[in-house]
Amino acid sequence: MAETRWDLLGLRRIHGAQVLFMASERMENGAATPNKNADEVTDTARRLVCRARSEHTDLQLSDCILDVSVGPMATDTEQLLRSAVESIRRIGSDPTLKGVRMSVGLSNIGIMLPKVQIDGMPIGLAFETAFLTRCVPLGLDMSLATAGRDYRVLPEGHPALVAFDDFIACDDGFDALAGLKKVYKLASPITKAA
Questions:
Q1: Whose CA is closest to 118, among 90, 86, 157?
Q2: 194 falls within a domain
Q3: Any idea what the CATH number is for the domain that residue 157 is in?
Q4: Which residues, 6 or more positions from 31, have their beta carbon under 8 angstroms from its beta carbon?
Q5: Can you give the residue range of the structural domain that contains 81?
Q6: Number of domains in the chain
Q7: What confidence category does residue 194 fall into, taking pLDDT thresholds of 50, 70 and 90?
Q8: Could you tell me if residue 25 is inside a domain?
Q9: Which 3 state secondary structure label does DSSP give 109?
Q10: How confident is the model at residue 5 (pLDDT cuts 50, 70, 90)?
């Protein structure tokens, strides 16, 4: 549920349930506006949870799930993946939000990446796993992911983790994509056996 659809929270009075809040957009001047940075995502998350808990006094923080939203790495010129990692870090360390749960659509990250491998892993899986490696310690505790994929913690120095860190550290989205393109060139084609 998002600020744009606040009326949906009324369903909780009929069916007590956990609530998934979309922190990726906010209401501004009466219209839905996408959040583009960690400040906007974190402020929206805090506002959603505080308002919901004031209107539903039985709503526990552990019943609140915040989706910070991630998109395809292959087209991320606006550094939304970087914003998601920073948002997860901020929400996870915010005393006001201590106890909330966080989720992302993990499989969005690998959409549109080429059919190549990094260190024996399909590149999409490698970057999704790198995201988890960095974000689970920050408080991310659930995701919508592709079933049957071999998600695992990557060791420091793993090529996908190094490339992921470089991608989110880049100060310009186009430079980040240029760096990602270099990773493609170093990767191996996926064979049918893989």
A1: 157
A2: no
A3: 3.20.20.20
A4: none
A5: 3-189
A6: 1
A7: very low
A8: yes
A9: coil
A10: confident
